[in-house]
Amino acid sequence: MNYESSFGGDTITARSEDLYGSEGEVETRSRRRNTIIAAIVALAVLIAAGVYFFGGKPETAAGEGAQAGAGTTDSQAPAVTVIVPGSGAVERVINATGTLAARREMPIGIAGEGGQVVRVLVQPGDWVRTGEVLAVIDQDVQAQQARSLAAQIEVSQADAVLAQNELDRALQLVGRGFISKADVDRRRATRDAAVARVEVARAQLREAQARNGRLSIRAPESGLVLERNVEPGQVVGAGSGVLFRMAAGGEMELRAQMGEADLAALSVGVRADVRPVGSDRTFNGRVWQVAPIINETSRQGIARIALGYDKALRPGGFASAAVISGSSQAPVLPESAVLSDDKGSYVYIVGKDNKVERRDVTTGTVTSRGIAIASGITGKERVVLYAGGFLNPGETVRPQMQGGKRS
After folding, report:
1. When comparing pLDDT for 123 and 181, which is higher?
2. What pLDDT score does 50 carry?
3. CB of 163 within 8 A of CB of 187?
4. I want to staple 251 with a disulfide (CB 3.0 to 4.6 A). Which of 103, 109, 173, 234 is the partner?
5. Which of these, 382, 268, 264, 275, lies nearest to 319 by C-alpha position?
């Protein structure tokens, strides 16, 4: 369609397509507008019908809309896994360190007059029996003295036999009147003195043999040789000090250093697990003695833990011990649930309205099941199990019990 108009004598001609577009585009926009208007009308009709049939009011509709908004917010809250730990028996463990040593250590030195060492018969690590010879000392001079004393016994015995024969003859002659009773008494005294000299000679020989026996260094009791401090050719005597050191029966112990509070909670007979430094083995032992005194400087005492013999237990070595001093009831949490900061250890609790609360706790023994909680929770709370470090107190969460069930 063309239009013509005149203005100031000039004629202006314009096509309607240039002003409003093509007829197809006009029709498309019109249909789109009509569709939107129809949808709005239909939605208004549905709302009005709902209000009519269900007796709704504008205020009710507004409340439902708010609840829908709240549901949307709850669905957007972070999901967390929680656990209700309960309360169970937890063994109280006292950790300590100390030095390994022989339970009954026997230092062995010279018991006699000493001399030059001829032979040493044992090495550290050897087992010996009671009375077994450990080292031999030269006994040549002492042996000759013993032979002399043995010969002296024979001389004394001969004198005693002669005195007895003379006494017998005197007794035969006294009845005939050839010898007086005084002579008989003198011969009897001579016989008795000769017999006494025999006993003296025998005692002197036994004394010499005992001294010679003490020259050989012997084990006072069966056990394990720990140290050897003597070599052949060495001259030893009463002032030579300790030549051998033994562990009676091969029994060992750990002398564990403990504080006053731990010693007070300890009793004789409780079990202990001992692990020497550098070893992956654990040895079972028992506390057999608790120190009756406390060191004034370190404020510590010693608990002695008895151990059986094993090559891995070397006296003088360092070891750690876990002493089981009793048991108590306490909640146990996995390590992932227990957090810590400058204020100490804490956990996150999911309280009312699923809001996160911080709860300060005191940790106890670390067990194979987790960390025992000495105080702070009762075990009936819902404790956040994972990712507690990403939460903040007061934050709303969606708790889920461990195993996938929602709390």
Report:
1. 123
2. 55
3. yes
4. 103
5. 275
Per-residue pLDDT of 172-221, as tens digits, reads 887 776 778 888 888 889 889 989 999 998 998 888 888 777 778 899 99
Residues 6+ apart with CB under 8 A from 303: 96, 255, 256, 258, 263, 266, 287, 289, 290, 291, 323
d(CA 393, CA 391): 7
Q: Of 310, 327, 344, which residue sits at a domain end?
A: 327
Domain membership of residue 406 (yes or no) is no
The answer to which of 13-27, 145-159, 393-407 has the lowest mean pLDDT is 13-27
Question: Rounded to whole angstroms, how far apart are CA atoms 23 and 364?
Answer: 86
Q: Is the Cβ–Cβ distance between 77 and 396 less than 8 Å? A: yes
**151/143 Cα distance (integer angstroms):** 13
Q: How confident is the model at residue 3 (pLDDT cuts 50, 70, 90)?
A: very low
Entry field: residues in the chain? 407
pLDDT of residue 56: 44
Confidence (pTM): 0.54
> Of 391, 405, 402, 397, nearest to 348 (Cα)?
391
Owning domain of residue 167: 140-215
Across 114-123, 137-146, 198-207, 214-223, least confident range: 137-146
Phi and psi torsions of 331, nearest 5°: -70, 150
Specify the CATH number for the domain of residue 183: 1.10.287.470
